[in-house]
Fold each of these.
Amino acid sequence: MKFLSLTVLAILIGIGVFSLFNQSSNNVEEITTTELKEQMKTDQTAVYIDVREVDEFEDGHVEGMKNMPLSSFTETYSELPKDKEIVVMCRSGNRSMQAAEYLVQQGYKDVINVSGGMLAWDGPVK
């Protein structure tokens, strides 16, 4: 009986820890690249950032995106205004989600991740 109680307790703790670490993405809204394209036509107040590395960005990026590589993001994120919407993009949506979650942890309220990233982008690149 004691073994069963410890097993149940361990499972509950594991679920709690998993939930704690899995929570942050719930605070980040996601949009598609189609929605991004439409938003960039009408919303000039949002800040659009691409967190790919410099060489990736230079190979082709969405016009209007500012390059802030994820590798140095913890040193540069404070340049971003907390009172504006921040839209984050990368190659596939994974690195941008990491950056978006980091921004939320730092107190940014209006952060959006572009799901699919450049792999899903079908618009022009600069």
Note: The helical segments are 2-22, 33-42, 54-59, 73-76, 94-105, 117-120.
Amino acid sequence: MELFDYPLFTACFLLLFMKSMGYLASHRLSKYGEWFVLSLLSIVPIGGFILLIWLNNRFGITVVQFGTIGNIILFCLGAFIFIGCSIWSKSLVLIIIPTLLYVPKYVLTYTQLSKDLQMILSYFISILSIAFYLFLLYGKEKGIDITYLTVHGEKEISDTLAVYEAVLSKMI
């Protein structure tokens, strides 16, 4: 049930959102009317997911298990979707962010660490690596060359603290 209902509710909400914004843009409403439309727009997804939870409790959750081949096919399908969206948007973010989220967890399962420590480390590695990637991406957008940073044109920065200070000053 959840396999079809979550995408169905999401598609219905996006359609309702588009129609509501189109209605608000084309009609002149009072502030109360606008707030009423926006309140209905926010109540519908909450009600839909509460209904989904109630239906799952009432009728039970259907479980679908894929074998090894099915998991490989689904992984390849998901990878092709992410790669296709990345090519379409001309950005590597859709490939790098999921990689940074899931690879540390997968790699740490092959260590002798306890499960709790694996979870904590994978969380911190994922968050820090994503933050570092976004920091590099932000620097690239602002025109800051992180690999070879110069200050005042010719002077190369060798001190680590000076590098951080220069990056932050150029970003701000």
Note: The two ends are 49 Å apart (CA to CA).
